[in-house]
Amino acid sequence: RKQATEYSTSSSDEEFESKPSLTHKAKRALRKRRKLEKETKQLIKQEELKRLHKAQAVQRQLEELEERQRALEIFGVELERELRGEADSGTKDENQMLHEWFELVMEKNKLMRYESELLIIAQELELEDHQSRLEQKLREKMAMDGKSKGTVCSSPQGQTRP
């Protein structure tokens, strides 16, 4: 009888010892998951900052481009007046003025292509930002679903249903 008591005590001790190891494993897994979540949030934040800096640079370049286009437009108007003979052309001959006008048109076209490229980059940044926000929402919903599954599936007796 004493052996049976010792046997039952030792078996319950083994069960008791295995439970703390499970909680230790669970705690370790939880810490690992939290660390991973924290690292993920930091990476997301870094990516957002990169996109923000890139967007600011694109915006700055667009503003500089707009100023340059305005200056070219003013110069073009003056050059056209000179070509029509409405303004004093001074010592410039018509061939020189036409050459300047064609260079001006080529510069304007180059700036318009560059502006198109910058607008495409800005649109890409907006799409990347939108994708990042959608992914974050998805992660939050998945985390909420995971938490709610653990609480919804438990029965009043403390047993969990599959």
Automatic annotation (TrEMBL):
Residues 1-33, 140-162 are annotated as: Disordered. Pfam families: bMERB_dom. InterPro entries: bMERB_dom (IPR022735), F-actin_Monoox_Mical (IPR050540). Residues 22-33 have a biased composition (Basic residues). Residues 45-162 form the BMERB domain. Residues 1-11, 151-162 have a biased composition (Polar residues). This is MICLK protein. It comes from Callaeas wilsoni.
